[in-house]
Amino acid sequence: MSRTVYVNGSFVPEEAAKVSVFDRGFLFADGVYEVTSVLGGKLIDFAGHAKRLERSLNELDMAAPCTMDELLKIHRELVRLNEVDEGLVYLQVTRGAADRDFVFPEGVAPTLVLFTQSKTLIDSPAAKKGAKIISIEDIRWGRRDIKTVQLLYPSMGKMMAKAAGADDAWLVEDGFVTEGTSNNAYIVKNGRIITRQLSTDILHGITRAAVLRFAREAQMEVEERPFTIEEAMDADEAFTTSASAFVMPVVSVDGAELGDGTPGPVAKRLREIYLDESQKVAV
Ligand code: PLP
């Protein structure tokens, strides 16, 4: 069945959706995006994603396509039209279409595109098994706090992981892990959860914020600091967080098995708490 997608003010069948070849998202990766998960037909942490979208737009001096209230309505309508019970809403805003020039165009309307993906997220076989991680060098640009559509290197990172028989890659800069290709990275040692502090080096994960809040509320110890791959290989357990995978246990790092090589108790508990708590306030 064809999906209904949203393009610049209209809900249309995916085959009929069109964006200009002069769109700066296409020509310059001059665009930002958000991915919001849907559980039981409701949006998880929409307010967090809307706030980060506003921040990304501001940092790039890009016009907002509409108000965040209107965006919420579009998200909800798309979920309804596509009968999404469990899955994702992908949203992208670009600086719009203009004759190709490195200088930002003036007075051009931003492009707004949204589509849904129905998929099983809670009972994911990957989460039951846990992820095998390899480390690769982080050669991305220096404003990783802005959620841009420049995803070629993360995509190459996933391919490097696949070629190595692993599931994902963690990125390492100056000897320390920054984050995963599409997630934030954590290790657990002696019951203490360790994850890199927020800066321009990493994306300020919406799931990260929620999970750290739930961990602290559950009296778990959290330390926000950089860690090395050697520390990760020696950790009791590890995990990642993202809107599309929630809390994903990590079972090995660069071939070193963590704990008994199965998802660890802290990751499993945080996944449960996150799923329970975030669904209670879903919209
Ligand atoms: N870090 C990177 C590089 C990402 O691409 C993502 C998600 O796409 C995250 C972290 C996790 O962010 P969130 O929890 O908001 O999905």
Automatic annotation (TrEMBL):
Which segment of the chain is annotated as a signal peptide?
Answer: none
Q: Spell out the reaction equation it catalyses.
A: L-leucine + 2-oxoglutarate = 4-methyl-2-oxopentanoate + L-glutamate; L-isoleucine + 2-oxoglutarate = (S)-3-methyl-2-oxopentanoate + L-glutamate; L-valine + 2-oxoglutarate = 3-methyl-2-oxobutanoate + L-glutamate
- Please state the Enzyme Commission number of this protein: 2.6.1.42
What is its pathway?
Amino-acid biosynthesis; L-leucine biosynthesis; L-leucine from 3-methyl-2-oxobutanoate: step 4/4; Amino-acid biosynthesis; L-valine biosynthesis; L-valine from pyruvate: step 4/4; Amino-acid biosynthesis; L-isoleucine biosynthesis; L-isoleucine from 2-oxobutanoate: step 4/4
Top-level enzyme category: transferase
- What is the superkingdom listed in this entry's lineage? Bacteria
Q: Which UniProt keywords apply?
A: Amino-acid biosynthesis, Aminotransferase, Branched-chain amino acid biosynthesis, Pyridoxal phosphate, Transferase
The record's section on PROSITE patterns has: AA_TRANSFER_CLASS_4
Please give the cofactor(s) recorded in the UniProt entry for this protein: pyridoxal 5'-phosphate
The record's Pfam families line, in alphabetical order, gives:
Aminotran_4
Task: Quote one Gene Ontology molecular function term.
Answer: D-alanine-2-oxoglutarate aminotransferase activity
Q: Its family?
A: Belongs to the class-IV pyridoxal-phosphate-dependent aminotransferase family.
What this protein is reported to do is described as: Acts on leucine, isoleucine and valine.
Cross-referenced NCBIfam families: PRK06680.1
**In its UniProt entry, what is this protein called?**
Probable branched-chain-amino-acid aminotransferase
